[in-house]
Design brief:
Blueprint (H helix, E strand, L loop, with lengths): L2 H8 L14 E10 L12 H14 L5 E2 L3 E7 L5 H9 L5 H5 L5 E5 L4 E5 L5 E8 L3 H16 L6 E2 L3 E2 L11 E8 L1 H5 L3 H10 L2 E4 L12 E6 L7 H29 L1 H17 L5 H16 L10 H8 L2 H8 L5 H24 L1
Helix pairs in contact: 3-12, 9-10, 10-11, 12-13
Enzyme class: transferase
GO molecular function: ATP binding; creatine kinase activity; protein arginine kinase activity
Catalytic activity: L-arginyl-[protein] + ATP = N(omega)-phospho-L-arginyl-[protein] + ADP + H(+)
């Protein structure tokens, strides 16, 4: 398979769009945790009840099911997928690592453009997730609530008048809402301002994690900023508080980028083009280095230093150079050293595609 076709088929359609502030806010995600009244919660359920719940969901959402906003919906069952296929969904942020590793009665219900993913039998019975490009938390909440209402017409949720939606984890009780944004903050890292900013964000009740959520490293200067608590706050308050902090981070990152251009233009330009050259010619590339180099190149694109290279290259290659994707592209299992070689080759080929496109 050619790289061009592979990218077209592998990258979620929603990722190809640009949203507000997309030079800094790569994506917005809204997730709602819901459980069904007539079933035992997943954390203590039996395989029999987990299977029954999955079957109940499949009766309501099957290959003939279509939603007016999201179009046709398809159900991917974990038991029908191999380990690498499940890991690909994790790398695309369509399912969680927990769902990939859980019982065979887990599933993901996906929309055609993959902006909607409903995880079944994860930590909660249903986890509704909406993904949008750029800074679009309000729109994401509107879409998630529309799907939530649509599902509530088909299922009876576990709900308490005093406490709200009942969830497996106490931190999700209430609205069951977890909102997050993926942000590219290289200038704040380079200027060493993130060390000061992170504690302040935590004090506001927000969490800052790496690209794959809790416990993951902030590779490529990518940070996931999200709310932590859902009880005692309305959905609007949660989105409002998070949006306020994100807007401040966007402003601070823009100011830091301007400062770098004014005070260290030659140094940052050298860093950007060294990374570009490394990506264009390396024969081996470890994942961590690739993330760093891609972050530098994306910064160079956003600062206008690198011309005729798509800004989406960071979004694409941060996904395509992950282990499961590399093995899918190769069509075989790869050792760590073989993955490093394939990663370098894929990046070189991707940059070559950009060069050929700009020659046309």
């Amino acid at each position: 398979m050619s790289l061009q076709r592979f990218i077209h088929e592998a990258i979620s359609p929603w990722m190809k769009n640009e949203g507000p502030d997309s030079d800094i806010v790569l994506s917005s995600r809204i997730r709602l945790a819901r459980n069904l009244e007539e079933h035992t919660f997943p954390v203590v359920t039996s395989n029999e009840d987990a299977e029954k719940l999955l079957n109940d969901v499949k009766k309501q959402i099957n290959p003939t099911t279509s939603h007016r906003r999201f179009g046709d919906l398809s159900c991917l069952e974990m038991k029908s997928m191999d380990k690498n296929e499940k890991q690909v969904l994790v790398e695309k942020h369509l399912i969680s690592p927990a769902l990939a590793e859980k019982s065979p009665y887990g599933a993901s219900i996906l929309s055609e453009d993959e902006s909607l993913s409903i995880m079944v039998n994860e930590e909660d019975h249903l986890r509704i997730q909406c993904l949008l490009s750029g800074f679009r938390l309000d729109e994401g909440l509107e879409l998630a609530n529309e799907i939530d209402d649509w599902l509530e017409e088909r299922f009876t949720y576990a709900f308490d008048e005093q406490h709200g939606y009942m969830t497996s984890c106490p931190t999700n009780v209430g609205t069951g809402l977890r909102a997050s944004v993926m942000m590219h903050l290289p200038a704040l890292v380079v200027t060493q301002q993130m060390n000061r900013i992170l504690p302040a964000i935590h004090q506001l009740g927000l969490a800052v994690r790496g690209i794959y959520g809790e416990g993951s490293e902030a590779l490529g200067h990518l940070f996931q900023v999200s709310n932590q608590m859902t009880l005692g706050k309305s959905e609007e308050d949660i989105i409002g508080d998070l949006s306020s902090v994100v807007k401040q981070l966007v402003q601070q990152e823009r100011a830091a980028r301007e400062s770098l251009l004014e005070s260290s233009n030659n140094h940052i330009e050298d860093r950007v083009f060294r990374s570009y050259g490394t990506l264009a010619y390396s024969r081996r590339m470890e994942s961590k280095e690739a993330s760093q180099r891609l972050s530098d190149v994306r910064l160079g694109i956003d600062l206008g230093m690198i011309k005729n290279v798509s800004a989406s290259i960071l979004n694409e290659l941060m996904v395509l150079t992950q282990p499961a994707f590399l093995q899918q592209y190769a069509g075989e299992a790869l050792s760590p050293d073989e993955r490093d070689q394939r990663r370098a080759a894929l990046i070189r080929e991707r940059l070559q595609l950009e060069a050929e496109k700009n020659q046309d």
